[in-house]
Task: inverse folding
């Protein structure tokens, strides 16, 4: 394994997290986490969706306040955490998505981010030159590649003289050459004594770049080791242990109707984040698409639905579908429940009735006026099956629990009576009871003949609900599991890759 060549002795840690707890709504998302990073060390932080990685990094950078525990930076406990305090303590985070002003120049973006610190053009150019990657200071940030934009975020951290750098999933949109350049830059920074937390799900990167690795699962630290003392299999099993799988409902395991044509076919579809994808889903089955975050699953769904451009062929109910837009998709019997329900799934300021009927306005209006009795009928059709609270039809969706918000998002997608529905992370952020309702609904939909595409990074969910499974990794479909081969181990190992592939 390649290791960071920096050799460092145990000195005063750059940062120490001691017994950190954080809960939302009474549900703990961090459970007594202990972690540190040494000067000159690159420390990997890995974990599945919902493991607590983002919350931990937000606590260190002062974005969220922990309920208990200590955060020590440079040997001093930080009592009043805030982003300003983090910057004052030489902590800087390079986000997964660069946060630049696209219409401003590179120089303007850098200088505006320094909190009043006066830095001249020559100094900015010196830092960029030191990273051995030429960038025009007068170029508009929006015209740069993603890798160059991330470089600008690194430049910001260097100019702030960061002693702790947090890098969150930096390689999702980079080419192999750009990844090599980024690694060179991070190693150079570590050689100066900077401590780096490196958040990633890519096993090859962890073993190529990082000195130590910590695994979080369900908010708790379950493994911490030097990278030369563990294997890929050790990390994957720590993230997704072999658990006893619940038997899937027989209806969700039912095979496609004999002789039926696919409700949805995709042939050679290529778009942002994915390449040359083929798939088909039949009426009455649940096609699971498994993979870790950043593998192109959501981008694939949005391209099929018409939210993103792409090349290739999409066939709905036997007819090619070329003029893809969300409105056309609904008209042709394809619905989509997006991953981010707050941003794209529901109208938070609208009522349950408003949301459920919003996709069928042409059916409930006359002369441009909404017919109230039809408006409520749409909602009543789904209220019982989704276990929506009695008497809650007029409540604003923003005031509902996460589980009920997700149910409303589902009802909104089901109102047009689609033939195919794509569910993207349908149980993310919902409680156990709401999850059971959603799982039951998925089985009901398949039993009624709907073709369901289930996208999830929860491998147990994929195993429990899917008739067949496609596994995606690095933007490609890398595996196909028929019903008899669907196991947690098969899905997990396919999503992360074999040891030979990442060594």
Result:
């Amino acid at each position: 394994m390649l290791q960071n060549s920096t050799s460092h002795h145990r000195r005063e840690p750059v940062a120490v997290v001691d017994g950190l707890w954080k809960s939302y709504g009474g549900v703990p998302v961090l459970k007594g986490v202990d972690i540190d990073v040494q000067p000159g060390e690159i420390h990997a932080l890995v974990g599945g969706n919902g493991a607590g990685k983002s919350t931990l990094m937000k606590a260190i950078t002062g974005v969220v306040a922990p309920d208990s525990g200590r955060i020590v930076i440079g040997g001093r406990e930080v009592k009043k955490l805030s982003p300003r305090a983090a910057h004052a303590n030489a902590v800087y985070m390079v986000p997964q998505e660069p946060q630049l002003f696209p219409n401003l120049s590179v120089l303007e973006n850098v200088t505006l981010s320094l909190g009043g610190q006066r830095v001249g053009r020559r100094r900015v150019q010196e830092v960029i030159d030191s990273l051995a990657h030429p960038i025009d200071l007068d170029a508009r940030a929006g015209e740069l590649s993603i890798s160059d934009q991330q470089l600008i975020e690194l430049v910001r951290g260097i100019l702030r003289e960061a002693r702790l750098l947090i890098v969150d999933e930096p390689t999702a949109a980079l080419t192999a050459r750009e990844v090599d350049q980024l690694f060179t830059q991070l190693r150079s920074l570590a050689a100066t004594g900077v401590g780096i937390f490196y958040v990633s799900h890519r096993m090859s990167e962890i073993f190529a770049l990082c000195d130590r690795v910590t695994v979080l699962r369900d908010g708790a630290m379950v493994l911490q080791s030097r990278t030369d003392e563990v294997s890929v299999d050790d990390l994957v099993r720590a993230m997704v242990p072999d658990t006893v799988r619940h038997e899937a409902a027989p209806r969700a395991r039912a095979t496609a109707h004999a002789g039926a044509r696919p409700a949805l076919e995709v042939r050679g579809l290529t778009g942002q984040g994915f390449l040359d994808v083929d798939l088909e889903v039949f009426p009455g089955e649940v096609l699971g698409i498994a993979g870790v975050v950043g593998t192109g699953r959501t981008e694939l769904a949005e391209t099929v639905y018409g939210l993103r451009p792409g090349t290739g062929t999409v066939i709905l109910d036997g007819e090619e579908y070329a003029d893809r837009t969300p409105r056309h998709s609904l008209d042709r019997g394809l619905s989509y429940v997006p991953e981010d329900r707050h941003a794209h799934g529901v109208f938070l300021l609208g009522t349950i009735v408003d949301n459920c009927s919003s996709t069928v306005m042409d059916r409930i209006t006359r002369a441009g006026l909404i017919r109230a009795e039809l408006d409520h009928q749409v909602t009543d059709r789904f209220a019982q099956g989704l276990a929506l609270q009695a008497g809650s039809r007029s409540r604003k969706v923003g005031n509902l629990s996460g589980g009920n918000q997700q149910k409303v998002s589902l009802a909104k997608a089901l109102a047009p009576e689609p033939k195919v529905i794509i569910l993207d992370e349908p149980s993310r952020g919902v409680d156990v009871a709401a999850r059971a309702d959603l799982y039951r609904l998925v089985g009901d939909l398949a039993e009624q003949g709907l073709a369901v595409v289930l996208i999830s990074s929860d491998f147990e969910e994929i195993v429990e609900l899917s008739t067949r499974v496609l596994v995606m990794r690095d933007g490609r479909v890398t595996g196909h599991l028929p019903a008899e081969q669907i196991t947690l181990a098969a899905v997990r190992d396919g999503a992360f890759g074999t040891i030979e592939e990442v060594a």
